[in-house]
Design brief:
The complex is a heterodimer of chains A (156) and B (704). Chain A contains 3 helices and 11 strands, in the order αβββββαββββββα. In chain A, the strands form 2 sheets. Chain A has a 6-stranded mixed sheet with strand order 8-1-2-11-10-9. Chain A has a 5-stranded mixed sheet with strand order 3-6-7-5-4. In chain A, a hairpin with a 2-residue loop joins β1 and β2. Chain A starts with a helix and ends in an 8-residue tail after the last helix. With 704 residues, chain B is an alpha+beta fold. Chain B is 46% helix and 22% strand. Chain B contains 25 helices and 22 strands. In chain B, strands 14-18-19-17-16-15 form a 6-stranded mixed sheet. A 5-stranded mixed sheet of chain B has the order 6-8-9-11-10, covered by helices on one side. In chain B, α15 packs parallel to α16. Chain B starts with a helix and ends in an 8-residue tail after the last helix. In chain B, 35% of the residues are buried. About 12% of the residues of chain B have low confidence. The interface between A and B is large, with 35 and 38 residues.
């Protein structure tokens, strides 16, 4: 009875935070398989613009998503800090390129607000909510949307 | 308990499938012959199925099989004879069973109402009743046995008794007029072997063979069948006058171990065992094969795929090392080891491939029934011949070839074979012939579907193509007969004057070809007007690993399946001509359309910075494309050829096919990816898709 309420109040999730265009984003740690350095990417013709190609991850073919592009953010040079976060969704893994990885943060469910266009100008479909950790804003991504929504088709 | 249930479910479903497959084949055979062996086999299949479905609680299924079993029993006893309506009713029963089985597989239970099928079977049974009754009486009485057991025989007997078998003393008396008593006696023994095991004889085997007995001989027999069934079976042998079946009284009572099995398992296992009546020989054979979950084999093949990649890599590393380092014993032993690993990987790959192989029988077995149904529907008389059904190919291929084959077979039945009277007019036999045959040729499996029907009229296809606006009149007339016949693979072309519900309209052969080519196969046709047609399908043995020609285009490596590659050429820029804005080269007096791979697979779009940094390394390769020498890979595209312009040929290699995955989706001209020896990813080209894409985007001469 009351324990259920209590649990919900104190529910804490662990997120992996990373940077994209000077903002801090986060995805649930349980969705992440691993974080790797940017490997050599094989380009695939005729795919949507935000799919950079595929990589060989220990014998598996993994598609690489340019997360900046999918979220409509400006492109940036790859740097030493650039990482690929490999997430798994519906039994298939996808790598997402991020500017750098901040680390693991904990957040209470009560500190997450629903996405609002006032806070961010990103497509709200891709956002699960906005959290506040130590005075800075954390944009929680909706992975299932990012990985299933039809990709942006190439400009004709 | 829950777990046990589902496990039994799977066993039940698998066995049911086996019995049904068997019944389907044997019902077909029933129309041609009614040997006791055949009848016995079908009866046993039905009996097994009845037992197991009832034990699993699928009563409707049990009742239906029971009705089938009763008919088969009457056939076996000679009380009924095979009639076409009977076979139809049996087939309908079988179809209903299949449906119920499918429902059980999907939902765990069936709600299918089979009362129509059951009563149809019962009606046939009732009609047949009141006929002749068994003329030979069954005598079950005590008898004094003259069989003396050796120690070895006693041991066998004890073993049998301890595993739920019952021992019977059987005295068979042959008719005194019987001319070849030994032969009859051997037939009796053979009949008995199907029901259980013969332990001992009086006279002994040699004695029986040499006819060292008057009219009767004795058998000690262990079985799980009823004494009544035994005497019925023996009575079916001609010239048997009397059969006495008595329960064997052993002097030394055999102690039966208490059987402690779960209540759930016992009834089911018993029924199955009883009906299979395994003889010791059959049991010994069973233990030599095991069922393996196919996903396990798939995993194995994936692992071997990785090994194949690493082997290539190892060889490359060894080569690089020997370029840099001075020859040393260390390097030598590295090369030796890598060669050895290479050989072992090859063998391992071969063996696991073989483990995944299935005889094409699995596909072909469905066809006789289909041919029967269709020819009945069309009113045609067709002799269907299957050849080479033992030809083995990979499971992955087996799974996908069924539909294209069915389509071609239907075409032959529907459009190929003429009506009986039409055949007579043309001086052919009333009965048409359709062959399907499979055989191995090099690294391929060839499947041919041939008929001796009316053949394909090239003129009609030309007319049709003009009528459909696919070709101009001149264009159509320029086609050779064989080229015209190949129009059958063009989409939207059906030459049947009237549509039929058997093979439908002209959406067929183009899809058949596309599907086969997707599998890395090819299909060709050979037809002579009035004489018949032959479709020839060539398929790779497996879909998991293929041989491919690796080529470099820009900075990317592409794999061209070797099945499609005809030859490679080196050409100069000056050899490329332009005909109506399309590039071609002249090759042996013929124009060969060109596709620039770099144009079809451009590395276009604004590159991300991440990509740019990577691309910089390859700028040398990019400029190389501007030089005047080109490499051309000539690939087959149905009956036509196209030249693919590439920057460099890398070589021939075995590659492991990997899917690009749903996140990327379908890419025109690309069928998958593979991991190369250096760890990079190469893309596998779908030749058919590539050409189609190029034609659509006008990079190549559109074919007539």
């Amino acid at each position: 009875m009351s324990t259920a309420v209590l649990e919900q109040e104190t529910q804490e999730s662990q997120l992996v935070a990373f940077h994209l265009a000077n903002e801090v984003y986060a995805v649930d740690i349980s969705a992440i398989n691993e974080i790797i350095l940017l490997p050599e990417i094989t380009h695939i013709p005729h795919t949507s613009q935000d799919i950079l190609g595929v990589i060989n991850l220990r014998g598996k073919i993994i598609p690489i998503l340019d997360l900046r592009k999918r979220l409509g953010l400006p492109s940036a040079e790859a740097s030493r800090a650039t990482r690929v976060i490999v997430v798994e969704q519906a039994e298939s893994a996808v790598g997402m390129i991020v500017d750098d990885v901040v680390g693991v943060v904990k957040i209470q469910s009560g500190e997450v607000e629903p996405p609002s266009e006032l806070i961010t100008n990103l497509d709200t479909d891709y956002i699960r909510g906005v959290g506040k950790v130590a005075d800075s804003l954390l944009i929680l991504l909706n992975l299932s949307q990012i990985l299933t929504v039809p990709a942006i088709k190439q400009a004709a | 308990m829950q777990m046990d249930m589902s496990e039994f479910h799977n066993v039940f479903l698998e066995e049911a499938q086996e019995q049904m497959d068997l019944m389907e084949q044997d019902f077909l055979a029933l129309e041609k012959e009614t040997s006791p062996e055949l009848l016995q086999r079908i009866f046993r299949a039905a009996h097994t199925l009845k037992g197991s479905s009832k034990a699993m609680g699928f009563m409707t299924m049990g009742d239906l099989t029971h009705a089938m079993e009763d008919i088969l029993d009457k056939l076996r006893q000679g009380e009924l004879s095979v009639t076409p309506p009977m076979v139809d009713a049996l087939f309908q029963g079988l179809d209903a069973l299949k449906q119920m089985k499918d429902e059980i597989a999907e939902a765990g239970d069936t709600t299918f109402n089979s009362s129509r099928q059951t009563s149809a079977l019962r009606a046939i049974l009732d009609k047949g009743n009141g006929g002749n009754v068994l003329s030979k009486g069954v005598e079950v009485s005590a008898s004094d046995s003259n069989i003396v057991l050796t120690d070895e025989q006693t041991l066998t007997l004890q073993e049998a008794l301890s595993s739920e078998f019952t021992a019977y003393h059987i005295k068979v008396t042959l008719s005194s007029e019987c001319m070849m008593k030994s032969i009859r006696a051997i037939m009796v023994l053979q009949t008995l072997e199907t029901l259980g095991a013969v332990i001992a004889l009086n006279p002994d085997e040699e004695g029986i063979e040499n006819e060292q007995f008057e009219d009767s001989f004795e058998i000690l027999f262990t079985t799980q069948s009823d004494p009544e069934d035994i005497s019925k079976a023996v009575n079916r042998v001609s010239e048997v006058q009397a059969v006495q079946v008595t329960k064997w009284q052993a002097e030394t009572p055999v102690e039966k171990p208490v059987v402690t099995e779960s209540a759930m398992a016992t009834p089911y296992q018993e029924t199955v065992a009883a009906s299979n009546a395994p003889t010791p020989a059959a049991q010994a054979k069973q233990s030599q094969t095991i069922r393996v979950d196919v996903t396990r084999l798939d995993k194995l093949i994936n692992l071997i795929g990785e090994l194949v990649i690493d082997r290539t890599r190892l060889v490359q590393l060894g080569m690089k090392l020997s370029e840099n380092a001075h020859a040393s014993t260390l390097l030598e032993s590295l090369n030796e080891t890598s060669a050895h690993i290479g050989r072992i990987t090859d063998e391992l790959q071969d063996e696991v491939m073989k483990a995944r192989m299935l005889p094409i029988e699995n596909v072909f077995n469905r066809f006789p029934r289909m041919v029967r149904d269709i020819s009945q529907k069309l009113g045609k008389d067709i002799n269907f011949v299957i050849e080479g059904k033992e030809t083995e190919l990979d499971r992955s291929v087996i799974e996908v070839i069924s539909d294209p084959l069915i389509h071609m077979l239907r075409n032959s039945l529907d459009h190929g074979i003429e009506m009986p009277h039409e055949r007579e007019v043309r001086g052919k036999t009333r009965q048409g012939n359709v062959w399907i045959r499979a055989y191995h040729a090099e690294n391929h499996v060839v499947i041919e579907i041939e008929d001796d029907g009316r053949g394909i009229d090239p003129q009609r296809l030309r007319d049709k193509a003009v009528q459909m606006g696919m070709l101009s009149v001149e264009g159509a007339n320029r086609l050779s007969d064989s080229e015209a016949i190949n129009l059958i693979f063009a989409s939207g072309l059906s030459t049947a004057k009237e549509l039929s519900d058997v093979s439908g309209r002209g959406v067929g052969m183009d899809i058949v070809r596309t599907n086969l080519e997707k599998l890395g196969g090819t299909v060709s046709i050979d037809s002579r007007l009035g004489r018949g047609s032959r479709f020839k399908v060539k398929l790779p043995l497996t879909l998991a690993i293929i041989r491919a020609l690796l080529v470099k285009v820009g900075e990317g490596v592409f794999a061209l399946p070797l099945t499609a590659v005809i030859e490679t050429l080196k050409i100069e820029s000056s050899e490329i001509h332009e005909v109506q804005h399309h590039e071609v080269i002249l090759q042996r007096g013929k124009t060969l359309p060109l596709i620039r791979m770099a144009k079809v697979f451009p590395h276009e779009g604004a590159m991300t910075p991440a990509e740019k940094t990577l691309a910089q390394r390859d700028t040398v390769a990019a400029t190389q494309a501007e030089t005047s020498s080109h490499f051309l890979v000539v690939v087959g595209y149905g009956e036509k050829q196209v030249g693919l312009l590439v920057d460099r040929l890398i070589g021939e290699q075995e590659i492991v096919i990997k899917a690009l995955g749903s996140f990327i989706g379908d890419i025109p001209g690309i069928s998958g990816a593979t991991i190369l020896g250096d760890g990079r990813v190469g893309l596998i080209v779908d030749i058919n898709g590539l050409i189609q894409f190029a034609v659509e985007s006008r990079n190549v001469v559109a074919y007539p």
